[in-house]
Specification:
With about 230 residues, this protein is of the alpha/beta class. It has a single domain, classed as TIM Barrel (Alpha-Beta Barrel). It is built from nine helices and eight strands. It has an eight-stranded parallel β-sheet. β7, α7 and β8 form a beta-alpha-beta unit. The two termini are about 25 Å apart. The structure holds D-xylitol-5-phosphate (DX5) and zinc ion. The site of zinc ion (ZN) has 6 residues, from β2.
Length: about 230
Amino acid sequence: MAFDRSLKIAPSILAADFANFGAECRAIEAQGADWVHVDVMDGHFVPNITFGPAMCAALRPHIKGVMDVHLMIAPVDPFVDAFAAAGADIITVHLEAGPHIHRTMQAIRSKGKKAGLAINPGTGLDAVSQLLDTTDLICVMTVNPGFGGQAFLSSQLAKISSIRQMIGDRPIHIEVDGGVTLATAPLATAAGADVLVAGSALFKGGTALQPAAYGENIRALRKAAADE
Ligand code: DX5
Ligand code: ZN
């Protein structure tokens, strides 16, 4: 995965048809998605349960490009190896998921994977500044994690700008996750984000069998984000 800061659209399959994930991943990529964002929830760190490493491994052959796995689980350390073996390209863990997140990030990189660091809306940047040398992506949560379809928290925009300044020339992506729509995408990119995760805004109106709306949604989001 070569690094560049061009805009990437990462549909979250949390908004896809759970009975048809393989076809949904193929459809969203064929319609222009850059990455596929896979939301793993454990019913403990967040109040919802999705799926685990076996599902990620099953999805892997259906994703040609980058599989971006967002782990909303605690503890996370016992599961890093399993998600690496499942074929994730990026493994993102929450700063809030445990006391030894630096070690977790090192463990992810030791598996040859990109290490992402997600931060909840209530989390500040002090600890993030200590982790930059082990981080390939910072995921700024613009909703409280657990569910799709929530409203974008504009209070997080200043945090995105601060992170953009903090990382300077380091090859670290800034991903924004939660409530991304045509209205909020340009705010996120103007603040410095280069990866936009979107679930409900990208899957609305289409299905894996009738995916034209996915392509329209992706193109509209790309255009809105460029009109920052
Ligand atoms: C929230 C997840 C997000 C979510 C985004 O816990 O991490 O990826 O699915 O969904 P929307 O775009 O609907 O807010
Ligand atoms: Zn996510």
